User: Fold this.
Amino acid sequence: MERYAPGYDDFDGRSVSDLLERTEDLLAALGMDKERCNERSAMTFLALADMCPGADWTTATNEMYTTRQIMDWIRDQMGVDYAPNTRETIRRFTLHQFMAGGLVQFNADDPNRPVNSLRSNYRVVPPLLPVIRGIDTPEYPNLLETFLSGIKTWNQQVAEERKMARVPVRMPDGTDMTLSAGGQNVLIKKMIEEFCPRFVPGGVVLYIDDTDKALGGVVDDVLRVLGIEIPEHGKAPDLIVWDRENNWVFMMEACSTHGPVDVMRKQELRTLFGGTKAPAVFVSCFPDRAVMGRYLADLAWETEAWCADAPDHMIHLDGARFLGPYED
Assistant:
C-alpha cells in the first residue's frame, strides 16, 4: 500500500483521520466486528457512500460500485493506493461481511449476474442512507435504532453461530452448560456424561479446562475445603471431579491427540496439587481404543485409562488396588 501525498491538497490530514474515526464508530454502531471497523473497511464504506474528505454527511449517496471502482475511489479521494491483489481481500473480508450484516446490496441492478462477473457491484442498502445522512444531527440516534430494528447485525450472527457450535453438557447434578466448540471438548463432554455416572456417581465437577477457571458458587467452597488451588491455564488437568463418598479427587486428562498421564505429567500434577486434602486418582481418557493404543506404552503406572467407545470398562495400570488413589 502506498500513500499519495497529492491526494491531501484540498484538506488537512486531521480531517481524514477524523472522517475515518467517525466511520469506524458508525460501523461499530451498525454491528460490525473489530476487523470490519478497521481503516480498510472504513475507506470501503466511505467509497460506497461517496463521502469524500471534507464533504458533509448529508451528501452521502448509494451508487453502485465494482470492487475496482471502490479501490480507485480510495486511491483518488483518500490517497491510499491498494495493490491489485488487495481486491480479493476487500471483497472477501469487508464487502462480504457488509452484505451479510445488512449494510450492502450485491448486484442491485441484476441479481442474476454471475458472481465472478467484472460488472458485479455493491451499493449501500437504501434504508441505511438516511442513517448516514443523519450523522451528527439530533435525529441520528432514532434513525440508527430504526435501521437496526430491521436487520440482524453481523455481530449478532457471529454470536449465534458461536452459540450453536458450542458443545452442550449435562453436569452430574443435572444442570446444563456448554463448552466451546472444537478441541478436546467433545471428549470432555463424554467424560462428564459417561465416565462420571459410572465411576464417580454423585461426583462434583470442580474444574473444566475450557472455562479456564473454577465453576463458582458451591464449587468455590469445595475447592477451599479441599485445599485445591487451580494453577494457570494449560497446567491444570482437563477435568477435575470430586468423589464426595470416598473423598477422592479425580484428575482427568482428555487425550484425543495428546496429553495422557505419563510419568512426567503424573509427577507434575502431584506437585501442582500437593496441598490438596483429598488423595488423587489419575485418569487418561481416550475417544476410542485405537487412539489409546498409540499412548499405552507411555501411561504411568498406578493410573487409570478409559475409552469413551467402551464406557462401562476401565483399564487399571498395576498397583495394589483398582480405581483408587496411591499415597507416595
